[in-house]
Amino acid sequence: MDFVQLIVSGLANGCVYGLIALGFVLIYKATEAVNFAQGDFMMIGAFVCLGLTNADFMGLNFWLAVPLAMVIMAALGYLFDWGVLRHMFGQSQVSIVILTIALGFILRFAAGTIWSHEPVSLETPFAGQDLRFGGVVLGIDEIAIIVVTVVLTGSLFVFFSKTKLGVAMQAASQNQLAAYYMGIPVKRIQSLVWALSGAVAAVAGILFASKGAIDPSSGLLGIKAFAAAAIGGFGSLPGALVGGLIIGLVEPLSARFAPDGFAGIARIAPYAILLIVLIFRPGGIFSQTQKKKV
User: Fold this and answer.
1) Which of 40, 66, 98, 262 is most buried, judging by how many CB atoms fall within 10 Å of its CB?
2) pTM surpassing 0.85?
3) 3-state secondary structure 270-283
4) What span, in angstroms and rounded, lies between the C-alpha atoms of 136 and 124?
């Protein structure tokens, strides 16, 4: 019974990693850039929702605060691309990576200044509730995380593969100049991708905060999410989820069954898997080898 609960908890954590990894993949699919501040967007999204539900601030109902937090984070992502990244058009990807790393430091500092560095939890309607199956006790919050992640990943996959806007986003990634000549507003498309990534980060942050405490350093979860995206394969939305689930399951299982004296193996297990995957399948499990269209 304990093993089943361990698996469910690992899946819930893996779904959070997968959602953050989705943000990495979304931006990479449309711009071929890597946003190392994605974990910090997740953290800020959680704090925004917490502030909206705080009785001393706005005291909104949780179900109203969630979509509003998503809108706020979408606006933050859009404004960052519009106000900062557009001015770096034509610069190397390394410059953009360094910029997003700096943005992560700024967001963590801002969160600590506004909300303090003490861990806090987000009160949700399903907090403390559980389902019992025989001797197995499953938290409603963990089940909600898994369900929301699967639905969101499926929706994004359909969006990118079936809608005109999603196809336009992928076209802009393949060749910006060709997309521009085909009438695709490349800059606006990229801003919309950053907005979508911000909204997804807000969902990840809210789910994470509903399951446990959050503080400004929680943004560093983005490092594990980056590993999840690399394991699943950059450019693959299902791959981001699978990579997150692999890391989410490996951590508790390695900690539970590690030999005596190797309790810390859970900390390095995700990166050991990343190393193995990169050696035998450099593009990730769901690698998508594509030729750029010109």
Assistant:
1) 40
2) yes
3) HHHHHHHHHHHCCC
4) 22
